[in-house]
Amino acid sequence: MPELPEVEVTRRGVAPHIEGRVVEQAIFRREGLRWPFPPGLSELLAGRRITHTDRRGKYLLIGFEHGTLIVHLGMSGHLRVLPPGIEPRKHDHFDLVVSGPEGRQVLRLHDPRRFGAVLWHANEAGPLEEHELLRGLGVEPLDEGFSGALLHRETRRRNAPIKQVLLAGDIVVGVGNIYACESLFRAGINPKTAASRISRARYDMLAEAIKEILAAAIVQGGSTLRDFIAVNGQSGYFQQTYFVYDRAGVPCRNCGAPVRQIKQGQRSTFYCAQCQR
Ligand SMILES: [Zn+2]
């Protein structure tokens, strides 16, 4: 599943090909994905210039003067930039055909499991951050506003395990299952610990770990950027070296004790009982 780093790397990969370009055509090949495609969207976008790209959590935002296209990659989606004239494959559901100095290019959404989304937020509907999918989101983990102080302050009444509080996304966005496991390991915090019982000092370490791990994943993803936009590229989600994630029973890279796997809210948690207290 694409996580925040993949979405950010995708944004950085497609941005130079679509920013400032004019949409010639928006092509939808089915009624919708997770939700129906907004009716009339092709007409709304045709002839309009893409002003910028942005990201909020795992939502890719393609900005126009009159609104914002909100794209989510779901469980299995990815975007590619292609030259014109390449026949769509199965599961290629949406094309944005743009024209610019280098001629015509196609931004194509491929989503086999169809949990992704393409939605429209018109400027006249109000501020983008008030969109129903965006307004409940926590702070961006790589922004200045994210810190141990914030985690500490926002968890004083949260008795759920810290792992689940991170995944909930209402305090901080983009810390998915993999990154939650890895950052708790790096900060030495047991994922079962009630969020309200973790000290400010330990939250400082956790916030630092989250920032470092996500930033490193984006840097690493940048080096595999070509996979995202290659004509014949596959999904391109990058594999990283994990300390605990998906390593059940394998010796901890730090202390050698076997990594444990438990279920928390239907999701697998991996941790080292020696290193994480
Ligand atoms: Zn260990």
Tell me the name of the CATH class of the largest domain.
Alpha Beta
**Strand pairing plus helix content: what structural class?**
alpha+beta
Strand content: 15-25%
Largest sheet, order of strands side by side?
1-6-7-5
Outline, from the CA principal axes?
Answer: elongated
The CATH superfamily name of the largest domain is MutM-like, N-terminal
The percent range for helix content is: 25-40%
Mean pLDDT: 92
Which fold name corresponds to the CATH topology of the largest domain? N-terminal domain of MutM-like DNA repair proteins
**Largest sheet, described in full?**
4 strands, antiparallel
Which value, in Å, is the CA radius of gyration? 20 Å
How many distinct folded domains? 2
Number of H- or I-type helical stretches = 7
**Could you say what the CATH architecture of the largest domain is?**
Alpha-Beta Barrel
What is the helix/strand order?
HEHEEEEEEEHHHHHEE
Distance between the termini: 29 Å
